[in-house]
Design goal:
The protein has 325 residues and is α/β, with parallel strands linked by helices. The protein contains twelve helices and nine strands. It has two domains: 252 residues, Alpha-Beta Complex (Spore Coat Polysaccharide Biosynthesis Protein SpsA, Chain A); 58 residues, no CATH class. Helix 1 links the parallel strand 1 and strand 2. The protein is globular, with a radius of gyration of 22 Å.
Length: 325
């Protein structure tokens, strides 16, 4: 069915998701929206080897709904590739990224749409996660639940740009903005989960792009989803692998943080010279601090290739935005 008008696209990225899809899709088909709003579902099959695509289509047909389902395939493994493909296939004004094990509360889409409509300064919106599982949660889970996108992302609703990221689960963006970021040259160095490879930080990387182009991140406690966590993920061994994935992403994410701080004019201490050299100048040559700062500010900054690429993409994005305005 061709959509004449689409307000919201829900992008569900899947890898071997057949066993998890039924309740996820049930929560999506039961969304409560104002009559004038329309939404669609784009399911991205990210190189699955099970019956994900066919089962999803069968489940959706069984609901006897007029809501459109489009199944697209992304052969390159990795959540970041699946998200990009889903965004490219979307027709809605806003995109909600829903993992294959996220159960969105019935008002999720309406709340997300209303908020993004009324807050153009916000680039990425996130909500509150609640845990669900068929087994009892281990004693350590409440302490480490944030590793599973469970809990709150702030004490209350508000701007969380200083946090630097929003969970990918239930993440909300505008279609034209994320496509503009991709088209400007922003590309993921963090691929995200690839089957048993638990590389992380791909959602945080997207958030960094928005911060670099001057958009904010926001947490809305009224946006609630349930994260269904399978039993094998609730082991100490799995959690250790999960945190290894987080650690591996730090180098790439810190590069973005460097740029964000630079753009805020919060220039890092000893940006141009090492701390030992600075101490030597101050102690031995008695260089006045004011003169030293003047020297640092006048010295051209030489960035390595990844930083230059990010700054170039930022420039292209901002120039394109200016032309639109």
């Amino acid at each position: 069915m061709q959509l004449e008008k689409c307000d919201i696209t829900v992008v569900v990225c899947c890898f071997n998701s057949a066993a998890r899809l039924q309740p996820t899709l049930e929560h999506l088909v039961n969304q409560r929206l104002k009559p004038e709003l329309n939404y669609e579902l784009v399911l991205v099959d990210n190189n699955s080897t099970d019956e994900t695509s066919g089962l999803a289509a069968n489940i959706w047909r069984s609901f006897n709904t007029n809501i459109n389902l489009t199944v697209v395939r992304e052969p390159v493994p990795g959540l970041s590739y699946a998200r990009k493909t889903g965004a490219g296939a979307a027709k809605g004004k806003i995109i909600v990224f829903c993992d294959d094990d996220n159960w969105l509360d019935e008002n999720y889409l309406q709340i997300a749409f209303d908020f993004m409509k009324n807050h153009p300064e916000v680039g990425v919106l996130g909500g509150k996660g609640m845990a669900a599982s068929r087994i009892e949660f281990p004693d350590w889970f409440p302490t480490y639940q944030g590793d599973y996108a469970v809990g709150v992302q702030a004490l209350e609703s508000g701007d969380i740009s200083s946090r630097g990221y929003v969970w990918g689960s239930g993440m909300v963006v505008r279609r034209y903005e994320i496509l503009s970021l991709y088209n400007a040259g922003f590309s993921g160095s963090l691929t995200g989960r690839k089957g048993s490879d638990l590389q992380a930080g791909d959602d945080s990387e997207i958030c960094k792009w928005y911060l670099i182009v001057g958009k904010s991140l926001y947490y809305n406690e009224l946006l609630v989803f349930r994260h269904y966590i399978e039993a094998f993920r609730l082991t100490i061994e799995y959690n250790k692998k999960l945190n290894q994935g987080f650690s591996q992403s730090h180098k790439a994410l810190n590069q973005y943080n460097f740029i964000i701080n630079l753009l805020k004019r919060e220039r890092l201490p000893f940006l141009k010279i090492g701390s030992l050299l600075l101490l030597f100048l101050l102690e031995k040559n008695r260089v006045k601090i004011a003169s030293l700062l003047e020297f640092i500010n006048k010295t051209p900054i030489t960035f390595h290739k990844p930083t230059r690429k990010i700054l170039k993409s930022r420039k292209v994005y901002l120039e394109n935005e200016k032309q639109i305005q």
